[in-house]
Specification:
mainly alpha; Arc Repressor Mutant, subunit A
Length: 218
């Protein structure tokens, strides 16, 4: 087993058994029978391990969807739906760890009394940055396919909205007690459809275009 994988596995087992992070990298490395320096070659801290795990969940879900030939013909809305369904399936394989890690972040947030700090958490930062890149690519594709309507001052905020949606769905799934997490599937469908109904072309856009035309040709 590679050192990185060994560290991740041992860390995951530790936090699930003790409900908290190890107190010392030195003691953690000693228990693993690796040099402390070998730990730092892979990770700078315990939070860095969790950040890597969250990023891995995202990367694996994205890669799985993109490797599906059928998904290549999906609309942008369908691609995002497929991503969320795949992502949640991957999270299920390590639900206990996800519930622990996300719960710790929310706990930290409550102590600081600032939701913004959770959004900017170093643990979620790599995942967030990767998701933003993914969202921007999807939205650009959506503009080309006319699924996404460019709007002055608002278009640049679309990735923020999708990230907020991602956190909402994650929180919903963590709290979901329905059989086989069926309510989460419904939440994904409703959230994505609502998002694309809002960022897609609507009667208001048609009205705006008409008003603009009338103004330019008065």
């Amino acid at each position: 087993m590679e050192t990185l994988e060994k560290i991740r596995k041992a860390y995951t087992e530790y936090v699930l058994e003790h409900g908290k992070q190890p107190t010392s990298v030195f003691q953690f490395a000693k228990k693993l029978k690796i040099a402390e320096a070998d730990f730092y070659k892979e990770y700078t801290s315990f939070d860095a391990i969790e950040a890597d795990i969250w990023l891995t969940f995202f990367n694996e879900a994205k890669a799985t969807v993109e490797a599906d030939e059928t998904a290549q013909s999906y609309s942008v809305r369908e691609k995002l739906l497929a991503f969320y369904y795949t992502w949640i399936e991957l999270l299920k394989s390590q639900r206990s760890f996800v519930v622990y890690s996300f719960g710790r972040l929310k706990g930290d947030e409550q102590e600081r009394k600032s939701r913004a700090r959770m959004m900017q958490s170093q643990v979620l930062k790599p995942f967030k940055e990767a998701f933003y890149d993914y969202a921007r690519d999807l939205l650009a594709e959506g503009r080309e396919s006319k699924e996404v309507e460019p709007r002055p001052f608002i278009t640049d905020r679309y990735p923020d909205a999708l990230w907020g949606q991602t956190l909402y769905l994650l929180n919903f799934w963590v709290r979901d007690v329905s059989k086989n997490f069926e309510k989460t599937d419904t939440a994904i469908e409703k959230a994505v459809n609502t998002a694309f109904d809002l960022i897609g072309r609507s009667p208001l856009d048609t009205l705006f275009d008409f008003a603009k035309f009338m103004y330019q040709n008065k």
